[in-house]
Design brief:
The chain is an alpha/beta fold. The protein is built from 13 helices and 36 strands. The strands form nine sheets. An eight-stranded mixed beta sheet has the order 16-15-17-18-24-23-22-20. The chain has a five-stranded parallel beta sheet with strand order 4-3-5-6-33, with helices on both faces. Keywords: Membrane, Transmembrane, Transmembrane helix.
């Protein structure tokens, strides 16, 4: 119960002053001159003033509020090391039991570091969790905070946190831990395919050792070298990027006896491989309506260096003009097809026919170029069916189909075959989903027989239109019509010539994304996503090996023809191995080289400054054999705001003076008959004295 007095005047304060001040002056003057009855007049004035002031006694019934105490529990992955999880659980149970004895504390338990979001697992952010626990609490009601952690906190402020209450930290682990780790000092994000890339790394030990250590270097899961490093020194490293797209470079060292964990004995660098400009040789047999279609497309591709020749004056054309007066450039056949043929990633013959421009022997060189990994595209026209067809040269060994000599001049819609609907080159071409396809017609097909490889597009009368084949280590494509320029010119609405031609060229040049059989995996947050390209109807499930060595099986679901997808939510950060059939892939889930694993030694240093700035303390949960427990907890003592908040074996939490008003009782002093009686008594006494 809280008693207090309050004044509730019957009239406003200005009017009250206007009425009482003159009367008070008259009463005081009477007292000064000792006039008869002045004392009674003064008493009557006081009674009148008291009645007008209307004093009221208030009796407040209040309920005291509790101090809010935050119990922040670190559940990050570094807490899984050794006995830290067990120590944390025992400390949490003990603290809850001890805090439960104090009715003046409202305990809020917050477990931090378990979020599934990858960006929240890169670091241990306990102060962010602490801020969330106190977000709806007035500063006067904050009693303090207790953190149970290994001390590796990455958002600790340099000074006091934003509240005026003690912060205490109880550290798991022990002070004699040993660990060794490896990290990249310099790792570029991009590298040229097939070219050496310079990097640097460092092996770090908690014991400041300086001896040698072997470092295994792996690229995309395959070990490529063993480096000899010196602990504590920055070491140079040179790796060759094997392919375009995402590449994973991994460094690993062996675990030492007594080492805390081998989680940070690996370091990962994700490097995007970039190809140097691809070199393409385009040879046009003669000028024709679609000659510039290939040229314009390849010239517009920034990743392609194009060399283009058009045969304008074949050797059999003799008109008597002296050679030195011609403005034409002689076709450098020997330089292109003997000396520098290996420099080209793709050779395109666009309506080319054998007219003695190339010696017969050079066709052998081209076939050998394909067998050893080169790429050849035949954009066929009527010449391919004629007597001078290149199919009648030694190049026939590299060609996927021989001509029948027939040229079919008939309007048709190019259509995808069943294989073409699944093949990466033609899958999902714009306009292919409708029937007829939403593109213009073509009017010529070159007849062939016994096609090899994969027929992905068909023309008039279901004849092969686009063939894709492998020869030895190289690839060959054959487009059996010269009408593609109709799409480029917008005839009947045109068609996806850019999309189709670019895919053909890049498939021939072995672009990884256009492989028929391809397995890729990637980490999105804490979800492992798997993508399988295949020409089969069902690739079967994918097998996954987690960073800890566990094995998982994930079913792959069909998303579109030739593409199967699968995903699995994970809880481990690290490198995952994915396999399906004969294909394997690597993917890193979670943050790369996260600070959570950069330093896993438990420490008191990170939290010492903010704890001491609030009057709190930092201490280890040291083993206690006397009590038979893995942890020893300090006693908890409620303290006032001005008192000390920690001692050698105890920690203090503030209590608040805040309360909630439940009810108020009012007792007016001059209300009712009592007030009226007192006022009449004073007035009557004054009148009686004045009357004598």
């Amino acid at each position: 119960m809280n008693w207090s007095i309050s004044f509730e005047p019957l009239i406003s304060w200005p009017l009250l002053a206007l009425a009482l001040v003159p009367l008070a002056l008259l009463a005081l003057v009477g007292l000064w001159f000792r006039q008869r009855g002045s004392v009674f007049r003064f008493i009557a004035l006081l009674a009148l003033a008291a009645a007008l002031f209307n004093p009221v006694f208030l009796n407040e019934e209040r309920e005291p509020l509790k101090s809010v105490v935050a119990l922040i529990v670190d559940r990050s992955q570094s807490q899984d090391i050794g006995d830290r999880t067990k120590q944390t659980d025992e400390a949490l149970a003990g603290l809850q039991q001890r805090l439960g004895r104090f009715k003046q504390f409202d305990v809020r338990v917050v477990e931090a570091g378990k979020s599934e979001a990858a960006e929240e697992r890169t670091e241990t952010r306990l102060f962010g969790a602490l801020e969330g626990a106190f977000r709806d609490v007035p500063p006067s009601r904050i009693g303090g905070a207790i953190m149970v952690t290994d001390g590796e906190v990455h958002d600790a402020p340099p000074g006091a946190p934003d509240f005026n209450a003690p912060l205490h930290a109880l550290i798991t682990g022990n002070d004699h831990e040993k660990d060794r780790r490896i990290r990249f000092e310099n790792a570029p994000r991009f590298g040229l395919v097939g070219k050496p890339l310079d990097m640097t790394y460092r092996v770090i030990s908690t014991e400041n050792e300086t001896g040698p250590v072997d470092v295994r270097v792996s690229v995309n899961g395959e070990q490529v070298a063993v480096e000899h490093a010196t602990v504590g020194q920055a070491m140079p490293l040179q790796v060759t990027i094997p392919g375009a797209g995402r590449n994973i470079v991994e460094l690993a060292i062996d675990r030492e006896p007594g080492e805390l964990t081998d989680t940070n004995n690996r370091a990962i660098a994700l490097i995007d491989g970039i190809r140097e400009n691809l070199r393409v040789l385009l040879v046009s047999g003669e000028p024709h309506a679609g000659e510039r279609t290939w040229r314009n497309l390849l010239k517009s591709d920034a990743s392609v260096d194009l060399v283009h020749f058009t045969i304008l004056r074949p050797p059999e054309k003799q008109d008597g003009t002296p050679i030195n007066e011609l403005s034409l450039i002689a076709f450098p056949t020997r330089e292109l097809f003997v000396e520098k043929i290996k420099d080209f990633d793709l050779i395109i013959f666009d309506r080319y026919q054998h007219r003695d421009v190339l010696p017969i022997l050079y066709y052998d060189y081209i076939s050998e170029y394909v067998e050893k990994g080169g790429a050849l595209l035949i954009a066929a026209g009527p010449e391919y069916a004629g007597e001078s067809s290149i199919a009648r040269t030694p190049l026939m060994a590299a060609l996927p189909a021989m001509p029948t000599g027939e040229v079919v001049d008939k309007a048709f819609y190019p259509r995808l075959t069943d294989l073409g609907q699944r093949h990466p080159v033609t899958r999902g071409l714009d306009g292919s989903a409708s029937e007829p396809p939403h593109w213009s017609r073509w009017y010529r097909t070159i007849g062939v027989q016994n096609p090899e490889g994969e027929v992905v597009m068909k023309g008039a009368d279901n004849r092969p239109l686009l063939l894709l084949d492998r020869k030895g280590e190289g690839r060959v494509g054959m487009l059996l019509s010269d009408q593609g320029w109709l799409w480029a010119r917008g005839f009947e609405g045109g068609g996806p010539h850019v999309q189709l031609y670019r895919r053909i060229a890049h498939w021939l040049m072995k672009e990884p994304e256009l492989e028929e059989e391809r397995l890729t995996a990637d980490g999105r947050g804490m979800v492992l996503e798997i993508r399988r390209q295949t020409m089969a109807d069902d690739p079967g499930p994918a097998q996954i090996i987690t960073p800890s060595g566990k094995t998982l099986t994930v079913k792959l679901e069909k998303s579109e023809p030739g593409v199967f997808l699968g995903s699995v939510e994970t809880s481990e950060i690290g490198l995952y191995q994915v396999a399906n059939g004969d294909l394997t892939a690597l993917a890193h889930v979670g943050p790369v080289n996260a600070p959570e694993f950069a330093d896993v030694i438990s420490t008191e240093n990170r939290l010492k400054a903010p704890a001491e700035a609030t009057g709190g303390s930092v201490r280890r949960l040291a083993p206690s054999t006397a009590l038979g427990s893995d942890v020893t907890l300090p006693s908890i003592v409620p303290v006032r705001s001005a008192g000390a908040a920690s001692g050698s074996d105890w920690i203090g939490l503030r209590t608040t003076d805040d309360s909630v008003l439940k009810a108020v009782s009012r007792v007016p002093l001059f209300g009712g008959f009592l007030g009226l009686g007192l006022l009449l008594l004073a007035m009557g006494s004054m009148w009686y004295r004045e009357g004598r």
